[in-house]
User: What shape does this take?
Amino acid sequence: MTQYPIVNGELVIGGQSVSQLATELGTPFYAYARAVIDARIAHLRAALPAAIKLHYAIKANPMPSLVAHMTGLVDGLDVASGGELAVALASGMDTREISFAGPAKREPELEAAVRAGVLLNVESFREVELLATLSQRLGLPARVAVRVNPDFELKSSGMKMGGGPKPFGVDAENVPELLQRIGDLGLAFEGFHLFAGSQNLRSEAIVEAQQLSFELAVRLAAHAPAPVRTLNLGGGFGIPYFPGDAPLDLAPIGANLAALAELAKTKLPHAELVIELGRYLVGEAGVYVCRVVDRKVSRGQTFLVCDGGLHHHLAASGNFGQLIRKNYPVIIGNKAAPERTETVSVVGPLCTPLDILAERMELALALPGDLVVVFQSGAYGFSASPRDFLGHPQAKEVLL
Ligand SMILES: *Cc1c(COP(=O)(O)O)cnc(C)c1O
Assistant: This one.
């Protein structure tokens, strides 16, 4: 992983060697590098037209100090719960640039959002009715965009979140009726939100979904009670996790967004175009580190048994949406330029065969005390894991 230098055989994260960090923090821990996030966003901005607004979906990594760091780098934050809304409101981001999506917004969450003045991506007729009541009771406008469940899918996505029957958003064919209701109730309509899927490494699939989303929004805009001021085209930009994954090619996506921004000048003249990304911004900027506790040979297979595993990093164990378990990139961080290697499996401390961090991987020859580093761990790690399962100590998190 070229984003982290190796000095004297040690992986260096945010200017500190992995051994130094392990001594200071104790293991296991997640470390996120500001400089890697900054470089990633600069690279992305250079590939995208200036007119495109970039939002961070904080679900990917809601650590408050990391979210606060993002406010200086992106144009908005997208949240998906009242808890994430609280993190976003405390981050320093302009509240008008926060948007809130999610299929089961409860009344206190909607109220908090209206009070704060954030944009609500409404996902049902119920939400619209409730917002009208709340808005009247509070004497405050409710800013709404309609989250549309499109009539197409994002092809080759790790997770599909639109197209076909879905709990997310309102089916495109029912959106005209919802728009009518939004107009009748006098809510402040601002635009549309479409999110077709996640973890996609094929730029042609992303380009196609963005084009179809744009065309759908133009068709729906004809039914809207007010001009479209914001069109969130979603994201889905993937990162390479597994052997054979190639990084996403941004050039065709940038060219397509430039063409859409040009089209928008005539077809949606008041709209700004937004994309919302999670893992693409932060996933490669984080590592998970745990320590080898024991080294065992069982019937010819060597196991490094560690103090961390599935309970801190469900995704790396292969149990967070993967159909076939594959190894995340893993190294022995304090032996990052190894002279001797061997094929081993790295497992965690839980009494379940699901607790695997690396299966039959070639790693530096490791002993108890050595440090296992899992790359690509800046997104869907700490907050997406069953951290109380089996009652082991919690992982720490640091932003460097
Ligand atoms: C999960 C999610 C994202 C972020 O997805 P990534 O794959 O991390 O980019 C963005 N928007 C919505 C609506 C989501 O549900």
